[in-house]
Amino acid sequence: AIDRQSAAAIVFGGSRGIGAAIAQQLADDGFAVALTYLGNADKAEAVSNSIRTGGGRAIAVRADSRDPAEVRHAVEAASRELGPLDVVVVNAGALRIAPLRTFPREDFDLLVDINIRGVFLAIQASMQVLRDGGRIITIGSNGAVRAGSPEGGVYAMTKAAVASLVQSLALELAPRGITVNNVQPGPIETDMTAGMIAGLVNRIPLRRIGKPCEIAALVSYLASSDAGYMTGANLTIDGGMVL
Ligand code: NDP
């Protein structure tokens, strides 16, 4: 069981949106939190300052998820400053949409690099220092379950890759008591989706867009010792959109 009062978590992509909400929630749960970011140092510092102001421990580390050396450096900094890791949340992601016929190859490469290769790099670097009994939580998408739009195919493909990976990784890490689960949000109000998702409300049975804190609440549960029997699961949280 994880003793949250002396436990440490790393959130890849914790400066904005869902990742920032997760970092704040895990800090509220008692975890010391390291969060990574790409370009928004000010926002990353604001999240870690807010955690420290609330009496928690937090550091922000710049690490491009696509760069193995930067990812390794972030994991080393986290475990050096906060202690051995108990929870790894891989949230950093990117979205590009276009019909396949015209989908730019550089956008394809970007999505694969961040949403697939970046997830692999973050997990591979972290699992060396993750404590037995720990948690790996990825942020996928409900797009992995069912096509949401004719233009979201490449993004959905990358998130389906993550949904697949957690199942094998759960098997690999089960002997160490480490659980591996993938959270699959539907439309959530963040910078990534600004101006894009209001029109989806009519396709959501609960008739509203989700909030980052609602995704963070599920991550909080998965990070807790109460969730110790759940592993290899793909958990869709989307107001019923893919039903
Ligand atoms: P945002 O665009 O609002 O935030 C993205 C976060 O990831 C930022 O902290 C950003 O850092 C970081 N990031 C992006 N690229 C990199 C990189 N190469 N290296 C390191 N950090 C990076 O996204 P959301 O909060 O909306 O999404 C978070 C996750 O949830 C993503 O994986 C997304 O695919 C997934 N998701 C989102 C949904 C939504 O409706 N919002 C729905 C389903 C899934 P910085 O601030 O420095 O740029």
Automatic annotation (TrEMBL):
It holds the Pfam family adh_short_C2. Gene3D superfamilies: NAD(P)-binding Rossmann-like Domain. InterPro entries: NAD(P)-bd_dom_sf, Sc_DH/Rdtase_CS, SDR, SDR_fam. Belongs to the short-chain dehydrogenases/reductases (SDR) family. This is 3-oxoacyl-[acyl-carrier protein] reductase. The lineage of its organism: Bacteria, Pseudomonadati, Pseudomonadota, Alphaproteobacteria, Hyphomicrobiales.
